[in-house]
C-alpha cells in the first residue's frame, strides 16, 4: 500500500521491459502501468514518447509525475506494465563524453511536456509556402508519428527560408525606379522618403 513499493516495482518492470525491447531492436512509444488493488478495482497511468525509447531513467522520470496522482487504496496485489505501442529502434553510436547531446535532451523535454500538458498541446511550427506571413507556418504536433510536411525530423532539421525582421500590419505601396524594367532597382520611395 506504499507508493515507495510501487515505485520500486515499476523500476524492476521497466528494467525487464527495456531489456526485452533491446533484444527485439524496438523502442516504446506508449506505456501503460496498471495497478490491481486488493478490493478488485484498478488504477493506472499511461505515458507516451515522441520517439521510440528504451532508456529506463527517462521512462522512470516520465512515470514519476503520474505516480504522485495514483491512489493505491488499501493496497495493491498485482502491477503490470505493457508497451502498447512500439517502433523499431536500432543501436546508434554514442558520443565520446557519454552524454546524449542536444538532440536527446530536446526529445526528453518534448516527452515530459507532452505527458504533462497533453500530446496535442506540444507543437512546433513547420514552414509552408505562402506569401501571407501569417500563413507561412503551420502548427504540427511535436509527438506526431507522421513526418512534418516540410520534411523536418528530429534527426534532420529542415532548411527554413529567411523571414523578415519586421512585418508591417498591412501592406504599404513602394515606388521603385530601375534603369531597365528587368534590372535590379536603383531607388525605392516609401512614405515620401
Give the gist of this structure:
The protein is α+β, with helices and mostly antiparallel strands and 193 residues long. 26% of the residues lie in helices and 27% in strands.
What are the defining features of this structure?
single chain, 193 residues, alpha+beta, three-stranded antiparallel β-sheet, two-stranded antiparallel sheet, 27% strand, elongated
Helix and strand arrangement:
Layout: H1 3-23, E1 26-37, E2 42-53, H2 56-67, E3 76-88, H3 101-117, E4 123-127, E5 137-141, E6 175-177, E7 187-189
Antiparallel strand pairs: 1-2, 1-3, 4-5, 6-7
Describe the structure.
The structure is a single chain. This protein is of the alpha+beta class. The chain is built from three helices and seven strands. The protein has helices spanning 3-23, 56-67, 101-117, and strands at residues 26-37, 42-53, 76-88, 123-127, 137-141, 175-177, 187-189. The longest helix has 21 residues, at 3-23. The chain starts with a helix and ends with a strand.
Major pleated sheet: 3 strands, antiparallel
Tell me the total number of β-strands: 7
Number of helices: 3
> In terms of structural class, how would the helical and strand content be classed?
alpha+beta
Beta content comes to 25-35%
End-to-end distance, in Å?
Answer: 77 Å
Report mean pLDDT, rounded to a whole number: 81
Q: What's the order of the H and E elements?
A: HEEHEHEEEE
Tell me the overall shape: elongated
**What order do the strands of the largest sheet run in, or round the barrel if closed?**
2-1-3
**Which residues sit in consecutive blocks of at least 5 with pLDDT less than 50?**
none
**Global Rg:** 25 Å
